[in-house]
Amino acid sequence: MRLEDIMTRRLETISAHASVYEAIERMVDKRIRSLLVVADGPVETDGVVTARDVVFKVLAKGLNPHNVRVGEIAGRPLRCVDKDQTVEAVAAVMEEANVARVFVCDEGRVVGVVALMDIMQANLVARAKNSHA
Amino acid sequence: MLKRLLKGNRKEEEALVSMREHLGLLCSATETFDRLLNERKEHLVERICDLEREGDMARRKVLSTIFEGAFLPYLRPNLCRFVELVDEAFDTLEDAARTFAMIRLHPSLTDECLKIASLNKQMCEILAVAFEITLQGGDLREQSLAVRILEKRVDDLKHDIFQRVASLPVAGFWDGKFLADFLESLTRFSDLLEDAADALYILSVSFR
């Protein structure tokens, strides 16, 4: 199974300077659980903000999401995997790092994201195709 | 149960062979369509139309064999429904191929359309596997789930495309219409295959 076949190519991004409230709006509108946080510097300074970060680091602490910048709560560095890696290897990376998604990078550029759900679904589809063989 | 139904019944076997052929032709057509979108070679449109015509012949053979008395009466409606759904998917794919030849796909839509064509191809492969499992009296649970997963992904991609398509420039009424028709056919195919998988599931239960 190739990583390229199961990854999501369309990445939703948000500036590190945007407010957490804007991130919440984006997640609700797009029905997604994470955003790629784009910093001003090179890709190494990018991060990811998840619904988990929003709840645990802002809302549960009683902070005003309008007053907190996304860059302040974003997880860094990005967990990047090479686009040529196998799905099994990526699952191992996710287990080791205890994360639900990793970004797929190619020549220093983020080209996609793979979530646990993508891996689970890809596995089920592969099983369904091969169960008659 | 199915083996009992088929034992010594030439008409049933004939009908099933034609159904397998029909489905096989559809799978070939989805592969050709995938190539068409990637390579944009005009002759592939004609190839899909040829496959559709062959598919029509297989469909007619299945239906006429059933109307000649193949299978027990309670099985016939679901068998016919399955065959009709596969045929409708074939027609839809042909429409998508023909309209694709008349449009210039905007680069911002290319990735999603290629992805949908690939998902359609995978759905068809799984439907063919499900058909064989049905004939063996097996359980279609895994194939049914896989088809639903893939259909949901096509739906998500369709949603993405339709969010952006309204802001794309079109040269005129007909360009816009052909683009809309192409997208409609491309995304409707997976709905039909999902319905066909459901019909097959009902058949597999009836065969037990």
Automatic annotation (TrEMBL), chain A:
Location of the CBS domain: 7-66, 74-133
Gene3D superfamilies cross-referenced by the UniProt entry: CBS-domain
InterPro entries in alphabetical order: CBS_dom, CBS_dom_sf, Diverse_CBS-Domain
Record keywords, A-Z: CBS domain
PANTHER family per UniProt: CBS DOMAIN-CONTAINING PROTEIN, CBS DOMAIN-CONTAINING PROTEIN CBSX3, MITOCHONDRIAL
Protein's UniProt name: CBS domain-containing protein
Source organism of this protein record: Desulfacinum infernum DSM 9756
Lineage: Bacteria, Pseudomonadati, Thermodesulfobacteriota, Syntrophobacteria, Syntrophobacterales
Automatic annotation (TrEMBL), chain B:
Listed Pfam families: PhoU_div
InterPro entries reported for this sequence: DUF47, PhoU-like_sf, Put_Phosphate_transp_reg
PANTHER family: UPF0111 PROTEIN HI_1603 (PTHR36536:SF3)
Similarity comment: Belongs to the UPF0111 family.
Protein name as annotated: TIGR00153 family protein
Organism: Desulfacinum infernum DSM 9756
